[in-house]
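Incident review: delayed structure delivery

Summary: a single-chain prediction request sat in the queue longer than the usual turnaround. Root cause was a stuck worker, restarted by the on-call engineer. No data loss occurred. The affected request and its eventual output are reproduced below so the record is complete for anyone auditing the incident later.

Affected input:
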Amino acid sequence: MKHNHGLIILWIVFITSILALSGCTGQKQMASARIDKDGTEMLYGKISRDQLFFDFPEWRNEYDNYSPEENVIKELKKADIYDEIFLFLGTWCQDSQREVPRLFKILDQIGTGAEEKIKIWAVDRAKKLADDSTDMYDINFVPTIIFFKNGREIGRIVENPEQRLEDDILNILSNDK
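Output delivered after worker restart:
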């Protein structure tokens, strides 16, 4: 009987080890997507928020420390919302480092399912990508945040908001009639 008990424990340890080593523990496995371009380490091309925060964890500090104006967030929750957001950023750009985490915080507080609605591209220092999308969307400064509704652009925020970021977003969504 003791022999079978020891065998069962051995099997449990074996199965647990296999699951842990195979990555079946429920955690995402992510590798760095940083590249060195023109002497600068950056993300380049289509990226995700998870990849951005993984490769540049200091951006999460801005996210964690930013407190959007509660009254504006309440108004944004009532606003006629966008269908899609295109975000062009530079991981090397201080304005992107400040405004992009704030955008994510605002979208999370609005609760719009932003992860499905936002498309993110990281550009190089020339504000270019391998395709012509930066020319097509007239990207000259980063970050550029473009809001779309029913397939048409309803507004954009370029480099720095005119007021607070959440105020500018509310202005865009409120003026779309």
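Verification: Strands lie at 35-37, 40-42, 45-47, 84-89, 118-122, 144-149, 152-158.
Action items: add queue-age alerting; document worker restart procedure.
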